[in-house]
Design goal:
mainly alpha, DNA-binding, Endonuclease III, domain 1, 12 helices, 59% helix, Endonuclease Iii, domain 2, single chain
Length: 214
DNA sequence: CTCCCGATAT
DNA sequence: ATATCAGGAG
């Protein structure tokens, strides 16, 4: 995909009004950080089901750091990978208090130093909570970018760097959100809705696809 | 690379 | 019945 096509792609995404059904619910950067950690291999709806209970019990890192891991597990047990995630939440809360004054840090290196926070989660927090032009490559973006032909990088982390260089700067801040929503509701993993897709004329996957009809 | 691991969509 | 879901640690 060349520069002109990439520009056209994001101009179309910016002009299309998407209508998300569910997104992570949060009220501050700490809640967003926790919600994104919980969202690994889980749907937003599943996460939104437990976070109100969790944040009512522990609205800040100081309180969450003092909770028993078992108590956190009990609250989030309806989410997959809940034992690992309960440990992450307690561990990252403890570190926020001990190393960052109880505040969510605003640099990639500091965020990644928190337990349970990898590059993808760090970049989501930087983008969504702090408005920075980062590209967090999750499973949706990894699939969408590969199909369209934006990048065929082998791993999400590699793709993240490729996209950051390849996407024009003025689209960078919102590109993350556009690609995610497109991946969730149009370019789905199973049965992609190519018949509703506004960018099929730019898509390598569509051109050699069997999903030409609905 | 494997493990983690419940809910939901298809 | 199985593929997938805002991944990260060991």
């Amino acid at each position: 995909m060349n520069r002109t096509q990439i520009t056209e792609l994001f101009e179309i995404f910016e002009s299309v009004r998407s209508n998300p059904r569910s997104e992570l619910v949060y009220h501050n950067s700490f809640e967003l950080l926790c919600a994104v950690v919980l969202s690994a291999q889980a749907t937003d709806a599943s996460v939104n089901k437990v976070t109100p209970v969790l944040f009512a019990r522990a609205p800040d890192p100081q309180t969450m750091a003092r909770m028993e891991t078992a108590a956190i597990e009990e609250i989030i047990s309806s989410i997959g990978l809940y034992r690992a995630k309960a440990g992450y939440l307690k561990g990252l809360s403890e570190k926020l208090v001990s190393d960052f004054g109880g505040e969510v840090p605003q640099s990639e290196n500091e965020l990644v130093s928190l337990p349970g926070v990898g590059l993808k989660t760090a970049r989501v927090v930087l983008n969504v909570a702090f408005g920075r032009p980062t590209i967090a490559v999750d499973t949706h973006i990894f699939r969408v970018a590969d199909r369209i032909g934006l990048s065929h990088a082998k791993t999400p982390n590699q793709m993240s760097d490729v996209l950051a260089k390849r996407i024009p700067e003025r689209f960078l801040k919102n590109a993350h959100h556009h690609l995610i929503l497109h991946g969730r509701y149009v370019c789905r993993a199973q049965r992609p809705k190519c018949h509703e897709c506004p960018v099929t004329h730019l898509c390598a996957f569509f051109k050699k696809s069997k999903y030409v009809t609905k």
